């Protein structure tokens, strides 16, 4: 408790060496920079290391994408999986660029959150389809008897709507945060060197922490409510594998901002101010990407999608569908009920989940709904 109070006090500390709190303090330059390892400086070491980590993590994820694209038997689920795993190359690339181009790094830092927003929204849609893949999944998601009562045009349950919009808000808010950061930097009102409430930096950091936390909590709530139906899909590992990126990015950036802005960490003969405030958080994040790439490789195996009637589409179509995020961007307008109905129509039309013999399926041709017993197809999910 005392640690939290001290952190909060430092976060909103309004003290400054300047007599005018509305003036951004001059960045501390520190002593002349000397080589960090051998003959290279820390900045050179940092962008080399982040570049290597980016290459390694990208190669690992491209293997995952290739496997799903060439075994594209379930487009509704696998396009979401491809979007989720592509978070690693997105983060790794921007982390490298931020470290390499420190001068423009502050303009690029919030780009990471936009990638996280796309990934967590895709994950929510993936969880919805996992539930729908179970017998009686429509009723599990929209309430007992919803399918029998033909409630395809009615409102979604209150809990589902709350989760839906709490997660999807991260897409527009991440764009707003990115724009606000760039505008305030250009206007000279951002001031990353200070945690004073007179500058945009502190308010953007707090707002970013709130919207990120809301999105993560909402996904965890969905998992808690539907835990019984999601059990065959090893969802906990999936949650940890990519949400760790979102949580660590927010936490690490916040902690380093507090330490640098409050003067706890200062430039030295090895580190410039930009090395600490801009480069260090991104370097740490870049080094973590190969770890998360490994986790995602095991969290989203291609084995459940092999066999059956073969791919429903080719690799090029798979990539086009994955990069076409119009379904995510229109989620606010369509809402849970309409989007899920369209997902089911897409499943039936593309025959994306080959039906097993005697799987206990049933169809509603009037509404374009195909119910499937997908549990047998995923019996070996945890083992994979």
Computed structural class: mainly alpha
- Global geometry: globular
Strand percentage? under 5%
Number of helices, counting only DSSP H or I runs of 4 residues or more: 16
Describe the structure.
The chain is mostly helical. It has a single domain (41-378), classed as Rhopdopsin 7-helix transmembrane proteins (Up-down Bundle), CATH 1.20.1070. It has 16 helices and two strands. The protein has helices at 2-11, 42-70, 75-85, 87-100, 102-108, 111-132, 137-142, 158-168, 170-187, 200-225, 227-230, 235-261, 273-299, 315-323, 326-329, 331-350; strands at 362-364, 369-371. The protein has a two-stranded antiparallel sheet. A hairpin with a 4-residue loop joins strand 1 and strand 2. Helix 2 crosses helix 14, helix 3 (75-85) packs across helix 14 and helix 4 runs antiparallel to helix 6 (111-132). The chain is globular. The two termini are 42 Å apart. The relative contact order is 0.17. Residues 1-19 and 347-384 have low confidence and may be disordered.
Short description:
This protein is an all-alpha fold and 384 residues long. The chain is built from 16 helices and two strands.
Write the layout of secondary structure elements.
Elements: H1 2-11, H2 42-70, H3 75-85, H4 87-100, H5 102-108, H6 111-132, H7 137-142, H8 158-168, H9 170-187, H10 200-225, H11 227-230, H12 235-261, H13 273-299, H14 315-323, H15 326-329, H16 331-350, E1 362-364, E2 369-371
Protein name: DUF300-domain-containing protein
Pfam families: Solute_trans_a
Membrane topology: Multi-pass membrane protein
């Amino acid at each position: 408790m005392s640690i939290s109070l001290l952190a909060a006090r430092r976060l909103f500390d309004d003290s400054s060496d300047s007599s005018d709190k509305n003036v951004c303090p001059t960045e501390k330059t520190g002593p002349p920079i000397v080589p960090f390892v051998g003959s290279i400086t820390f900045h050179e070491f940092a962008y080399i290391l982040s570049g290597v980590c980016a290459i390694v993590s990208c190669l690992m994820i491209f293997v995952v994408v290739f496997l799903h694209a060439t075994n594209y038997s379930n487009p509704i689920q696998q396009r979401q999986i491809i979007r989720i795993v592509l978070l690693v190359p997105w983060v790794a690339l921007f982390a490298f660029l931020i470290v390499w181009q420190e001068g423009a790094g502050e303009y690029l830092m919030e780009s990471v959150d936009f990638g996280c927003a796309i990934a967590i929204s895709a994950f929510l849609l993936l969880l919805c389809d996992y539930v729908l893949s179970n017998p009686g999944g429509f009723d599990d998601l929209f309430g007992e008897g919803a399918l029998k009562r033909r409630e395809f045009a009615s409102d979604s349950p209150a809990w589902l709507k709350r989760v839906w919009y709490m997660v999807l808000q991260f897409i527009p808010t991440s764009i707003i945060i990115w724009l606000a950061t760039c505008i305030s930097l250009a206007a000279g009102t951002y001031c990353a060197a200070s945690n004073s409430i007179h500058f945009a930096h502190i308010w953007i950091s707090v707002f970013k922490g709130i919207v990120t936390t809301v999105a993560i909590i909402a996904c965890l709530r969905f998992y808690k409510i539907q835990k019984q139906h999601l059990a065959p899909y090893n969802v906990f590992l999936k949650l940890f594998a990519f949400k760790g990126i979102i949580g660590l990015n927010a936490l690490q950036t916040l902690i380093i901002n507090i330490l640098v802005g409050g003067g706890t960490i200062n430039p030295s003969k090895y580190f410039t101010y930009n090395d600490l405030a801009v480069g260090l958080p991104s370097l740490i994040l870049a080094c973590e990407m190969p770890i998360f790439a490994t986790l995602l490789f095991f969290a989203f195996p291609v084995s459940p999608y092999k066999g059956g009637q073969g791919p429903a589409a080719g690799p090029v179509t798979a990539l086009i569908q994955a990069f076409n995020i119009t379904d995510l961007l229109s989620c606010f307008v369509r809402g849970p009920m309409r989007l899920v109905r369209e997902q089911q129509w897409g499943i039936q039309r593309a025959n994306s989940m080959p039906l097993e013999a005697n799987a206990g399926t049933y169809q509603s041709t009037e509404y374009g709904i195909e119910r499937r017993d997908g549990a047998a197809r995923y019996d070996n999910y945890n083992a994979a």
